[in-house]
Amino acid sequence: MKKILVFLGLLSLVIGLAAQIRTCYDVQYTTAANGSSPFTGQSVTVQGIVTAARYYTGSSTSNYGFFISDVGGGPWSGLFIFTNQHSPLVGDMVEVTGTIVEYFDLTEMSPVSSFQVISQGNPLPPISTITTSQLASAATGEQWESVFVKVLNSTVISAPNSYQEFTINDGSGVAQVDNQCFAPGHTWSGISAGQVWAEIKGLVDYAFGSYGINPRNDGDMVREYTLASSSIKINSVPNAKLGQIEKVNVLTSRLRPNYGVQTYEMTLSFDASSVKFEGIEFDSTLTLSMPEYTISADERSITISYDAFATGDYQGGPMTSPADDMRLISLLFQPLKYGDTLLRIDEFKYNEIPIQNLTHGTITVKIAKKMAFLDIFSTNSSKNIFNPQLNEKINIRYGYQVLNSGINAKAIVRIYDAQGRLVSTPVNKNMTSANGIETFEWNGRDANLNILPIGLYYCHLEIMERNTGHVERTIQPIVIRSILK
Fold first, then answer.
1. How far apart are CA 386 and CA 383, in angstroms?
2. I need a labelling partner for 413 at 20 to 30 A (CA). Which of 17, 193, 306, 465 fits?
3. What pLDDT digit, counting tens, does each position of 352-372 carry?
4. CA 378, CA 393: separation in Å to the nearest integer?
5. Domains of the chain: residue spans and CATH
């Protein structure tokens, strides 16, 4: 009996280690002189936010991978995933499993054995502002490999060569800019030696002894700062509490006096079943008096407008700010559900000029106690009713408590009919999400992929802690409706 118990204990330990979720920092950070990852040759599982959704090599038309980053950004926070089998979107939180290799001294994951999109529409990690000299050698450049960075006020030293590489210098040293995030056939237009670029941002790669910045698109390169090149972002709230009013800051890039900013207008959308808009706070922000705002009829979006001259707040002068990421306005929300709620900027205008560089935010409520969380809703409403004959699906969101060490639980979702017969088990897996909440789209089919008839069904959730065996359960109804005639 003792041998059996020891074996089971060791098996549990091995399973726990195999399922450990790593960060990009874990994989990238190294003290090795050659810059090799401590996980080289090992299979690891990593979670991160997609910062660039495509990356090409040579003249191939295939998508050869994507970059991910830790939520907090900073040195060692990026990783390149080499694969043409998956095409996530920028802002996706993904979980990937694969082997860590050093491809000509670039740390990457290849091949990929498992891939999952955990959530979408997440805000991107903070961009790290660096100097061009930090990419001049391995001693300072290794930490920025696959990280989203930007350099400021750089002069073009050499025009693009036949490989579409050119060099820049912000006064501290020379760095390379490349176009690997653009589709094959792309050529730089209008770039010549002597030009000064206010801002160039992108993902750092390494090839043939050089670190290079790879802009994702033309918008990542700003020749000179103008009102149209401004950026707006929503600050995320990572540890919100149910029933507690949370302040969400809207941040703006620097507003220079020559911009002449007099007005702004913003439309923000969100899931009204997950958060409730509670108002606006303007104290200690660039907005000096209460702006006008309207709430849509379905309470899923708000439009905020402000005229600094009409209110007399700036006494005839334009709105200005001395630095980036100044608070423009603060919005108040009350979380109603566990999980992530996306706060999406649908539109923003300064002086009626559309601003394209917009970063959405997220309010996250983590489950702080032992409970099986279950939330069932359709794509277009919070109701638990859908019609699979019209190809409709129902969202089954489930979750469990997250501790400092993460989540170590298994989730089983079973669907029963009104007579108590098991008809489907759409979820039977170990949970891996960072916030303890996962979502599955059920298509209304049974275990044999047949569409179930109209009627009442019951969704049963069972969560089991993998280390203790503790079990929590809950159940909610689902209605399959008929086609209206």
1. 8
2. 17
3. 999 988 989 989 888 888 899
4. 7
5. 1-224 (2.40.50.200), 230-364 (2.60.40.680), 373-480 (2.60.40.2550)
